[in-house]
Design a protein that fits this description.
single chain; 363 residues; alpha/beta; Rossmann fold; 9-stranded mixed beta sheet; 6-stranded parallel beta sheet; globular
């Protein structure tokens, strides 16, 4: 084993700054290359991070030929995640894949097959699994403080707009596909995560029924939370609101929504119900606390910001590096993340048929 695993960060957008930082801080990795569609973008990221001895590329295939690269961190727009992941797998590299992993079931199947064939390790950036509140709640659930679970809710509420550098690709149906895929998949994954009692496992979905709606689709006039005024922006090409009910294999029912139309700050509300206790965000009520008269509030970091610097990428990357060094699979690998994405694709199918959709969709 090499003294340090070499990392190629592919894509130089907003999220790449945190991937670079996390791998620079891990004692077992070093960033050896950055690639982007524009060489200048890659150079800017290297300079910002203070990286001197780093190779820069404007071509992924060339970057993958670098023998120093052991890990590829895919930070490109979502509509090219599949082709980037497949290329990295064929090159025999371990892969960090930003969410969403792909824009169609066919893309995801091809990714899965390429990774299986290459036998490389993967982790998908459902980074909230490493959020301090998420980790505390999973321990509480695993310890039985809520008893037997029966219902879980999570909602992704963020009025994405032109303030986000990825908005132009994300707003289009051809490249963004749906609100659930663009951002709401974080809430879908949260529902899967909290619907399972085992600490390092997510629940398996077996059926989905969903509705879509909202008022932003096609509208140019939109509220900009950051400037606090109405502005003309390129419109969303899909519904800004999606709500789904999910039945899990273990009997738990989940409700998940994504809302890009709310005139409000970013919020990510969570509710978890068991037969011995309840969680509402960072507040807990449990029969374990004898004489409890009010909600017990956990003073920890909540998933309450869309800012990438707020997200626990360091913990995610440290986990993944450990998986590589210990030759074990991540609980958030590509195979597991497919189950989260299938819920989003099942919702799209439900809008067409008006009928519940059985899972899995891929075999």
């Amino acid at each position: 084993m090499k003294e340090k695993l070499g990392v190629l960060v592919h894509g130089a957008g907003w999220v790449s700054t945190q991937h670079i930082k996390a791998f620079m801080n891990n004692p077992h990795t070093r960033v050896v290359a950055i690639s982007s569609r524009k060489l200048e973008s890659a150079r800017k990221r290297a300079e910002e991070a203070g990286l001197k001895d780093v190779k820069l590329y404007d071509n992924l295939d060339k970057a993958l030929e670098n023998p120093e690269v052991d890990i590829v961190s895919v930070c490109t727009p979502q509509h090219v995640h599949a082709e980037n992941t497949i290329a990295a797998a064929k090159a025999g590299k371990h892969i960090v894949i930003e969410k969403p992993i792909g824009n169609s079931l066919e893309e995801i199947r091809n990714m899965r097959d390429a990774v299986r064939k290459a036998k490389v390790k993967t982790v998908v950036s459902f980074v909230l699994r490493w959020n301090p509140l998420f980790q505390i709640l999973k321990r509480i659930i695993a310890d039985g403080m809520l008893g037997n679970l029966y219902y879980v809710e999570a909602d992704y509420q963020s009025a994405i707009a032109a303030w986000w550098s990825g908005y132009e690709d994300a707003r289009k149906k051809s490249t963004g596909v749906s609100a659930f895929l663009v951002g709401g998949c974080h809430a879908i994954d949260a529902v899967r995560w909290f619907a399972e009692k085992q600490e390092y496992k997510a629940a398996n979905p077996v059926e989905v029924f969903a509705y879509s709606g909202g008022l932003r689709k096609g509208r140019i006039r939109q509220w900009n939370y950051y400037t606090q005024r109405w502005e003309d922006m390129p419109p969303l090409e899909y519904d800004d609101l999606e709500v789904a009910l999910v039945k899990f294999e273990n009997g738990v029912i989940g409700k998940v929504s994504v809302n890009f139309g709310g005139v409000q700050p970013y919020t990510f509300p969570i509710e978890i119900f068991g037969d011995e206790g309840t969680v509402k965000d960072n507040r807990i009520w449990s029969t374990r606390f004898q004489g409890q008269r009010g909600w017990i509030e956990i003073p920890t970091i909540l998933p309450d910001s869309a800012e990438v610097t707020h997200h626990p990428f360091q913990a995610q990357m440290d986990h993944f590096v450990d998986c590589i060094l210990q030759d074990r699979e991540s609980h958030c690998n590509l195979e597991d993340a497919i189950k989260t994405h299938e819920i989003a694709f099942a919702a799209l199918e439900c809008y067409k048929t008006g009928k519940p959709v059985r899972l899995p969709l891929l075999t």
